[in-house]
Amino acid sequence: MVSKMNKDAQMRAAINQKLIETGERERLKELLRAKLIECGWKDQLKAHCKEVIKEKGLEHVTVDDLVAEITPKGRGKEYRVF
Question: Which InterPro entries match (predicted)?
Answer without folding.
Answer: TF_ENY2, TF_EnY2_sf
